Amino acid sequence: MSVESSSVAGPGGSAGSSTSRGPVEPASVERVLGRLGRAGVVPVVVVDDVGQGLGVAGALDEGGLPVAEVTFRRAGAGAVIEAIVDRHPGMLVGAGTVVDARQVDEAVAAGASFVVSPGLSVSVVRAAQEAGVPVVPGVATASEVMAALELGISTVKLFPAGVVGGPAVIKALSGPFGQVRFVPTGGVGAGNLPDYLGLPSVLAVGGSWMVDRGLVVAGDFAEITRRTARAVSIVAGSRA
């Protein structure tokens, strides 16, 4: 049985994490991935501090999209994840741009429900599997898809989607890899969102246009809410 479809311990059960917040209710990996699929869009959030993170989370929630992938591109991502999880318990919060096992441990200890990586790292995948959280590694080629499958992963992040071929490459890869679900990220926006969501093998897309850095820095959370609501509307229309 694939690790992705098995019922495993939830965040906080990672061996080797000295900062664990303690045991939490066990959760199914597939249930988390199912929530991502129903959302259709995974906002890729880059913030400088907890205040910005909470502002963005509130705006996403108000816009009808209670999902956030907080990236480890900035220091303090773990604290941001922990704050959002505590303040918005109904929000599905994950960690993005995770590049090593240490960051996996930090993210899970903070309460992250899923992990996303820009590439395919065996150590990142294994750490997430041991912690019992879904991991969505980045791939760009058929060889990387095969390597992911060998690790028990059948949901992958196509990255950078716009550079490696966009919807066309997903269609091509879906031929030999019919069991694989894709989360295209990089170059996805409101304009081409329907092109991706119209593909049966696309679980969801990752994007940052709703949470543009300029809006975050300016504290324009009203515009983030507006863009988020628009994205939710596009998802609904694309899957009607």
Automatic annotation (TrEMBL):
Catalytic activity: 2-dehydro-3-deoxy-6-phospho-D-gluconate = D-glyceraldehyde 3-phosphate + pyruvate
Single Gene Ontology MF annotation: (R,S)-4-hydroxy-2-oxoglutarate aldolase activity
Signal peptide: none
The keyword Lyase is assigned to this record: yes
Enzyme Commission (EC) number: 4.1.2.14
Cross-referenced Gene3D superfamilies: Aldolase class I
Enzyme class: lyase
The keyword Membrane is assigned to this record: no
Keywords: Carbohydrate metabolism, Lyase, Schiff base
NCBIfam families linked: eda
Family designation: Belongs to the KHG/KDPG aldolase family.
Protein name: 2-dehydro-3-deoxy-phosphogluconate aldolase
